[in-house]
UniProtKB/TrEMBL annotation:
InterPro entries: DUF604. The chain crosses the membrane at residues 12-35. It comes from the Eukaryota. This is Uncharacterized protein. Gene3D superfamilies: 3.90.550.50. Keywords: Membrane, Transmembrane, Transmembrane helix.
Amino acid sequence: MSSPSYHTSILCKYYLIISLVATFFMLFFFNLTYISSQYVDSSIFTMKCEEAGPKETTANLSHLMFVLVGSSRAWKHRRTYIESWWRPNATRGNIFLDVEPSEEFRPWSPTFPPFKVNEDLRKLRIYPKLANRVHIRIYRSILETYRLKQDDGVRWYVTGDDDSVFFVDNMVDVLSKYDHTEKHYIGMFSETIKSNFHFSFDMAFGGGGYALSYPLVEALVEELDNCIERYHYIWAVDHLQSLCLADLGVDLSLEKGFHQMDLYGDISGFLSSQPTAPLVSLHHFETVTPLFPGMDRPGSVNHIMKAANVDQSRMLQQSICHVRASNWTFSVSWGYSVHIYEKIFPRSYLKLPIETFRPWWHGGPPPFYMFNTRPVSRDPCEAPHWFFFVSIEQEKEGVVTSYKRKFPRNMTSCSFSGNTSADPLTTIRVFSSKTPKPGRKVECCDVEYEGANVAYMRLRDCRRHEIIA
């Protein structure tokens, strides 16, 4: 069947021909002087041809279908992660479990995504040969979602685990850059080299989530079980997915805001220097220490979402400014932390994460990561004073986030700066605009400090050719 735009194009051509013929007829059969003396409304011959049908709306949250996977046994410990970002009656999707949830969760809370139990894999003829039956169950959740016929208006499928946290407003903004009528596979590889080496450098890691445009979903579900048979020996579901999509002619488009978080331990150094890209997801909370000192893992996730619920566009976005009189450098990771260095450092250096964390795969010589890092230092000129996010306030003229020192630095001051210590500071207040920050734009800042225990930072647009150094 021909598309509406095709018929519209034909009609436009007919209108043009008719207009030309009519003009010729008038010029040929009527007195030209008479015609020139009359007012001929040019709009008679002006045909405005528009696309048939209603104009397409801007992307919004209702266009995303979340395909979340987990297990009933782990739900008790992981439900808080999904609850932190799920918006009842706004987000669409389901959580797929291996078996029915326990009576402890009956009736099912409306703050959870609706649950579905995956189909029995034993019906598949390839079942005895499957290398990883758990991962195949997870993979087929895409097919089972499609068969639910809940896709009215859906433009994207977004996959994730029960311990994935999504920043859905940023997700919408990121996906809006792509033509959802084309086939797209969008995500990010692992942070660690060995994870990518063992599986693939060309696949999105599903814990951090990935997005499939709806035309790609339609193509995939027709071949999904056939692809499982073709690659039954593949162990990891994300690797399998990349192979299936490659065979459909679609490769991965990278977006740096998806985070698999294949890291161990304290990830504060990473979160304080997140790439300049909208934060889309975080994962693997149970293998890292709580995001904030003095909190447990669920509590720390709920805490960071307090900032995210006000302004996701600035989440973990780094802004750097200097106090020349004291030789201090301030670096804020919005909604998470502020660092103060007792020395002037350029942005080119501070954008490198402090290696407070360890790689997912232990052992062997470096390099470990897909990005450059800087070491943890005991040099008072290199080690920052750490302040962590405590509160957020919405005021008439903007948004104010506050950060407090959680532990003393326990170092002498940097002699390079003339022994000007930042130890007296206990609180940093950061002022930002209510206007969302464009995706990859870097904001600059100014600092107001008069020698008390509080410093004030104000984020702003960088001046033309401003040097952050």
